[in-house]
Amino acid sequence: MSTEISPPPVKRRRLDSSPPSNTTLRVYAWNINGIAPFLQAPQKQITSFFTPSPTKSTISVSEPPPPPRASLRDFLRRHSFPHLLLLQEVKIAPTDTTTQTLVQRAVATLHSSPNEPDYLAFFTLPTDKFNATGFGRKVYGVCSLIRRDFFTSQGVTVRNVDWDAEGRFSVIETEGREGWPRLSIWNVYAVNGTEFEYRDPDTGEVRGTRHGRKLEVQRLMRGEVERLEAEGYGVVLAGDMNIARDGRDGWPGLRTRPAQHMRNRRDFVEKFFGDGEGGLGMCDTFREMEGEARRYTYYPRGVKWGESCDRVDYAICSKALKGALTEAGMLNSEQERGPSDHVPVFATFDFGHSRGGSKKIKQDDPGGGMENSE
C-alpha cells in the first residue's frame, strides 16, 4: 500500500490460535452486513419446478443446493472455536424461522467432526413496526453464537433489553461458576445517528431524529451497565457502536460533519470511557493492548481497501475486568472481511491470570492485516 494512502506497514503481532483454556474467555464480534451469504439454501425437489401431471406420479429427486459463499463454521474453526461469536446486522425478518433454523444448522457440530465444539444460536430481531420496516423487515438484528459447553458450564442466560425493539441488543449473562466472575456480555448494534425521523415504537408518533435516539440509547445503555456493575457483574460490550472514538480512529481523517455527529461522539466517550461524573471509566480493549495504533474495522465496499476506513467496532469491558485482559484487536484483512463491509474484533480474558501492566504495540497500517498462526 502506498504512503499516499496510509503509513508504511509494520510487523504484525501473531494471534494466539490455541484453544481456550478452562480460565479464558474468548469473544469475537462481527457486523456481517447480512447473514444470507453464510447459509446454504434449502433443497428444492425437482417436482417444485413443474406442474404435476394428474396421471403420473411425481419424481422425488432433489437437486443439490448451491454452496454458501462464506462459512460461519469455518470462521469458528479458523479461530479455534471461541466461546462467543456475536454477529450484528444479520438482516433476518422476525417471522423468518427458516433462516434462523439454517443458522443453527450452519454452526452445529458436523457429523464428520464430532469432537469439535457445538454452538447454540440466539436471535434478537426487530419487532418495531415503525422504525424497522424496510426490505421486508430484513433490517438490523443480532445473533449470538454461544459454545454449548460454555453455555452449560457457566449457567448462561440470554435476554433482550426492554428499551429496544429494533433488534440491536442481546445480553448474555453467566452465574460466575468455577472461579469465574459473573459476566454480562452484550452483543451491540448501536443506532446510527442521522436526521431521519424516529417514531415512538408503540404509537408511531414522531419523537425526533435518529440522532436523538442514538443519544437516548447511549443513556439507557450506560444506566443499565452501571446497574449491572453495582450488582457485581463484569460487563463486556462488543459489536458495532456506529461511531469512531477519536482522531486515531478514522482514515484519512475523522468525520466532523454534521455537528450533531460530533456531539454524539463526545457523549459516547464521556459516558463509557470518562472517569469524571457520569462516566463509567470502561476499558477500550484495543487501545489497552495496542496503544496508539491506527487500525480500523469498517472498510466500505466499492472503495479501494484502506483508502477510507474507520474504527467503529469495539470490545469494551468494565474496569474490574481490565486486569484479566490478555489480547484484543481486529482481523483487518480483506479475507477476514469476507462478504461484509466490517472486519471482526476480538478480546480474550484469562480469569486465572492478572496482568501487571498493559502491553502497547505500535501499528500504523490501515490496510494491513494481523497474521494468524493457523
UniProtKB/TrEMBL annotation:
<protein>
    <submittedName>
        <fullName>DNA-(Apurinic or apyrimidinic site) lyase 2</fullName>
    </submittedName>
</protein>
<feature type="binding site">
    <location>
        <position position="341"/>
    </location>
    <ligand>
        <name>Mg(2+)</name>
    </ligand>
</feature>
<feature type="binding site">
    <location>
        <position position="242"/>
    </location>
    <ligand>
        <name>Mg(2+)</name>
    </ligand>
</feature>
<dbReference type="InterPro" id="IPR004808">
    <property type="entry name" value="AP_endonuc_1"/>
</dbReference>
<keyword id="KW-0479">Metal-binding</keyword>
<feature type="binding site">
    <location>
        <position position="240"/>
    </location>
    <ligand>
        <name>Mg(2+)</name>
    </ligand>
</feature>
<dbReference type="GO" id="GO:0046872">
    <property type="term" value="F:metal ion binding"/>
</dbReference>
<dbReference type="InterPro" id="IPR005135">
    <property type="entry name" value="Endo/exonuclease/phosphatase"/>
</dbReference>
<feature type="active site" description="Proton donor/acceptor">
    <location>
        <position position="240"/>
    </location>
</feature>
<feature type="site" description="Interaction with DNA substrate">
    <location>
        <position position="342"/>
    </location>
</feature>
<dbReference type="GO" id="GO:0008311">
    <property type="term" value="F:double-stranded DNA 3'-5' DNA exonuclease activity"/>
</dbReference>
<comment type="similarity">
    <text>Belongs to the DNA repair enzymes AP/ExoA family.</text>
</comment>
<feature type="region of interest" description="Disordered">
    <location>
        <begin position="349"/>
        <end position="374"/>
    </location>
</feature>
<dbReference type="GO" id="GO:0008081">
    <property type="term" value="F:phosphoric diester hydrolase activity"/>
</dbReference>
<feature type="active site">
    <location>
        <position position="189"/>
    </location>
</feature>
<dbReference type="GO" id="GO:0016829">
    <property type="term" value="F:lyase activity"/>
</dbReference>
<feature type="binding site">
    <location>
        <position position="89"/>
    </location>
    <ligand>
        <name>Mg(2+)</name>
    </ligand>
</feature>
<feature type="binding site">
    <location>
        <position position="342"/>
    </location>
    <ligand>
        <name>Mg(2+)</name>
    </ligand>
</feature>
<keyword id="KW-0378">Hydrolase</keyword>
<dbReference type="Pfam" id="PF03372">
    <property type="entry name" value="Exo_endo_phos"/>
</dbReference>
<feature type="site" description="Important for catalytic activity">
    <location>
        <position position="313"/>
    </location>
</feature>
<feature type="site" description="Transition state stabilizer">
    <location>
        <position position="242"/>
    </location>
</feature>
<keyword id="KW-0464">Manganese</keyword>
<dbReference type="GO" id="GO:0003906">
    <property type="term" value="F:DNA-(apurinic or apyrimidinic site) endonuclease activity"/>
</dbReference>
<feature type="active site" description="Proton acceptor">
    <location>
        <position position="342"/>
    </location>
</feature>
<dbReference type="InterPro" id="IPR036691">
    <property type="entry name" value="Endo/exonu/phosph_ase_sf"/>
</dbReference>
<dbReference type="GO" id="GO:0006284">
    <property type="term" value="P:base-excision repair"/>
</dbReference>
<dbReference type="GO" id="GO:0005634">
    <property type="term" value="C:nucleus"/>
</dbReference>
<keyword id="KW-0460">Magnesium</keyword>
<feature type="binding site">
    <location>
        <position position="31"/>
    </location>
    <ligand>
        <name>Mg(2+)</name>
    </ligand>
</feature>
<feature type="domain" description="Endonuclease/exonuclease/phosphatase">
    <location>
        <begin position="30"/>
        <end position="342"/>
    </location>
</feature>
<keyword id="KW-0456">Lyase</keyword>
